[in-house]
Amino acid sequence: MNKKIIIAIDGHSSCGKSTVARQVAHALQYNYVDSGSMYRAVTLFALRNKLIINGLVDSNRLVEMLPLISISFKYNPEEQKSDTYLNGENVEKEIRGLEVSNNVSLVAVVKEVRQAMVKIQQEMGREKGIVMDGRDIGTVVYPQAELKIFMTTSPQIRAQRRYDELVGKGEAVSFDEILKNVEERDFIDQNREESPLRKASDAVVLDNGNMSRNEQLDWVLSKVNEILNDN
Ligand code: CDP
Fold first, then answer.
1. Does residue 10 lie within any of the structural domains?
2. What is the pLDDT of residue 180?
3. Considering the domain boundaries, does residue 94 fall inside one?
4. Is the CB of 105 under 6 A from ligand 1?
5. In the chain, what is the greatest distance between 2 CA atoms, to the nearest angstrom?
6. Smallest Cα–Cα separation from 19: which of 197, 168, 121, 165?
7. Has residue 49 been placed in a domain?
């Protein structure tokens, strides 16, 4: 089958969007882009340059410095996934830590940051054959995407997954702290003025609370096949 489509996956934090997106991209031989990692890289840049103090972002300076930020991805064969690079430095591990997680939603509300990221993301999808996950992919980045998925599940299940992931990586974290972070990010993501997290009207909902990895992959692939067979 030669026809390639765009698959946009949006949803709450830690509901497994990136796992599904990666599985689907692998099965279809599509590119996968984790748009959240781009906001995380900008957040790391802001933290390193002391542009976030006590939960306040110096957005004027951050916007001024945006041209100094270059974000790219490079495939890591060992991990079988792409690592995120900030100005040529591999920051994959650092952007997943709690300090970035605790601040990323504050940076993601800055309009000019979003505009810059969306521009890069749209460029990446020009040739289709892409799976991108985030908060505004089906609503803002690719409103024309052939398949839009809105993923969600309860905050407790999501916090437990994030906890297991970080503990698995050897980080000392508390479950309560993670649950708080998940709930706070949901609130900020849904209530911000600029591109709030919303289900696109033509998105299909995937609640994977009781689904195995294989079940969720099959679910998405069946939607893809419906679209490809319709055309
Ligand atoms: O993995 P998780 O879903 O927890 O987070 P992420 O996808 O790495 O995204 C981190 C944060 O970036 C989110 O909490 C959002 O505040 C922001 N984000 C966004 O605003 N728009 C996107 N397209 C992707 C992420």
1. yes
2. 95
3. yes
4. yes
5. 52
6. 165
7. yes
pLDDT in tens, 36-74: 999 999 999 999 999 999 999 999 999 999 999 999 999
Q: What percent of the chain has pLDDT over 70?
A: 99
More confident residue, 231 or 163: 163
CATH number where 39 lies: 3.40.50.300
The answer to whether the CB of 8 is under 6 A from ligand 1 is no
Ligand 1 contacts CB of residue 104 (under 6 A): yes
Domain count, the chain: 1
Distance 181 CA to ligand 1 centre (A): 12
Residue 16 lies in a domain: yes
The alpha carbon of 36 and the centre of ligand 1 are apart by a number of angstroms equal to 4
Pocket perturbation via mutation, ligand 1, pick of 98, 104, 178 by most ligand atoms within 8 A of CB = 104
35 lines ligand 1 (CB under 6 A): yes
What is the DSSP code string of 170-216?
Answer: T----HHHHHHHHHHHHHHHHH-SSS-----TTPEEEE-TT--HHHH
pLDDT digits (tens, 9 = 90+) for 85-140: 999 999 999 999 989 999 999 999 999 999 999 999 999 999 999 999 999 999 99
Residue 18 alpha carbon, nearest atom of ligand 1: 1
Q: Following CA atoms 116, 147, 188, 13 in sequence, which dihedral angle do they give, to the nearest 10 degrees?
A: -110
pTM score, whole prediction = 0.90
Host domain of residue 48: 6-214
